[in-house]
Amino acid sequence: MLPYSLAFLSGVLLLQNLPSLPQEKWVWLSVIFSSILLYCPYKIFKIPAVIALGFAWCLWFAHMQTRWALPNDFEGKTITVTGYIASIPAHSEQMTEFLFSIKQLQLNHHIQSAHGLLHLSWRSLGFEKLEKKLHVGDQWQLNVRLKKIHGNLNPGGFDYEAHALQQGIRATGYVMPKLKNILLSTHWYSYPIDRVREMIKIKIENHLPLTQTSPWIVALTVGERNGIDEANWEVLRNTGTNHLMAIAGLHIGFMTGFSFVAIGWLWRRHKKLSLRFPAQLAGAVASLCVGLLYSALAGFSIPTQRACIMITFFLLIILQRRHARVWQAWSMALVGVLLLNPLSVLTDSFWLSFGAVAFIIYGMRGRLAPQGWWWKIGRIQWLMAVGLIPLGIWLFQQFSLVSFFANSIAIPWVGFLVVPLCLLGSLLLNISTPLGTWVLILADKILGVLWLILTWFAHLSWGSWYLSIPNYWALGAAILGMVFLLMPIGMPGRYIGLIWLLPLFCYKISTPKRGDVWFTLLDVGQGLSAVVQTEQHILVFDAGPKLNANYDMGASVVVPFLRSLRAKQVDMLVISHGDNDHIGGAPAILKQFLVKKVKTSVPKELPMVSASYCLRGEEWNWDNVNFKFLYPTEHLLGFDNDSSCVLKVTSGSQHILLTGDIEKFAEHELIKTEEANLAADILVAPHHGSKTSAVDAFLADVHPRYVLFPIGYRNRYHFPHEEVIEKYNALHTIKIDTVAAGAITFKISQTKLIGPLCYRQLQARYWR
Fold this sequence. Notes:
This protein is of the alpha+beta class.
């Protein structure tokens, strides 16, 4: 069973690496090819046959997922959509977000059917109480503005477009609150499981006092984690315990195991029941029911799907009175999850869930070991902490050195104390509100004590190690190394695993040679951030925007990119001026890296560091690459956009000009003072291509070969402006924007320029 399940997985993964989605006819061709191979008498042909089946199934599923797309002429226009709220609405102070299952949309008098999910936000008008107005399962007619799925794409960053495909989200947008939005119907049988989950969530939030850990009580009960701030997630990541604070296979295992033992014990106390039905079977049926109910509370997430399938398998084994084969259960769970949604392979939880269980099975079976639960729990923690190191680095660019100790405390604490109290408290809320509230408060207090311990672990300076894995080959070698190292003690060749781990720690990331410079304009949406890399130095120019805790381009784009370079420090951070789309991500960079120098036109906006002004004439040389500030001067500070730092980078005869948000006034000043120094091969467009910039004489002096526009998809400013584009066209300049290209990299030596290397093209996938 195991080889065939892995073969099916390989077929699914094969599709995920294609730059475009093959036509549907390939589904049937793959099925026919597979059928022919299956009828061959030789077993060796069965593996490619199953690979073809996995490919065909995933291809068909992807076509079903993408069969509807938002028409181009509907983007950005007010349209009327009809459908159902398909997720528990997430409420914040002035905004509510939810998934909307669309059935029909209308623009003017043009009506068409639709299929898929929309990710919508609804801004409150102040007098509205959206918490009481919006509920999962309700049918609405909404007036919305939509746009197609488009995410930022950078090395090391999160792929939102892959996430949206896996979730079935086909467009994003917002509700027009001032227009007439109509509740059409509300029925208990519409999304019944999510309605129950929402009811429980509301009751808990209404009766449990708000504390630092109270949002985790909701997460552990119904799997909703929207109220949890980024600081709490950082504690979990740094301690390797983020898997604990969501309903996952571990919690399902605790609850089903407890149910199996408890029901079996009670059943044996009753003679008639024991004679009628074996206690072991009664415990197995009860544990399956508990597992299904708890998984339903979690919305049947991928880890709970895997756990339920494995529990079902073991129940069938028990009913048949046969010996359980653990790898067979794991294989069945793998195929079951892939049949439900083969695009689950695009999620982190899929790999962590199945990877963790695989290492536990591998490390626990076939060993001679001391008896006792404590040894088994400690062994499981060791296997998870060590075995998942390669996957943790691949997915999160870090692994926790305190994970084993933190999990050894947290897993039994959460599994034996917090989770049972959460479930008991939520149940009692429907019977006796004061008693249920008391139990939930007790669960929160117990979790609060654990949180103090985890916070202490998280703030240990040596607690986390940041690393990146450069390619699939290094990842595969590291996993193979772990397989060797976790072999039973005494097995010959066990420590060969250390050799296979060498690429993980000794692989040298390619860097520029002396005198060369690598320049990357990152895709941070409507904002700016660029990284300049020389042989031994790194400069970051601007940090992108931060709109809220969930939209911080410094944390989600710049920091992961620097981690992918295996950067240990930032030699200089330049913040051109004080607008949020340039300075917003700076605190995240300053928190994660040692930054030697900070240069800016607004030092007062960065009180957490000793920042100095970026003044004209300041010049330095790193590794035979010259850097020079051309603007502003001291008397031109305090002019907002027109005080932006302007930096010129020179490698031999190649020049890069970074201009921040300067406008026509600053461009005229540069013509006066630096006319001879403005020529550049690469120009980052002033003010993102706004018509308030791009003076003809300035462009003529720069006369760039490439102009780069750091812009957001369908940005509200309509950058770059058509008038500006025409000016660059007149100069025969090659225009590239981050919307179409993602991150843009140039590798520059003293005599030649390699690029542009556009990340969206280099990492082309069918969902982009």
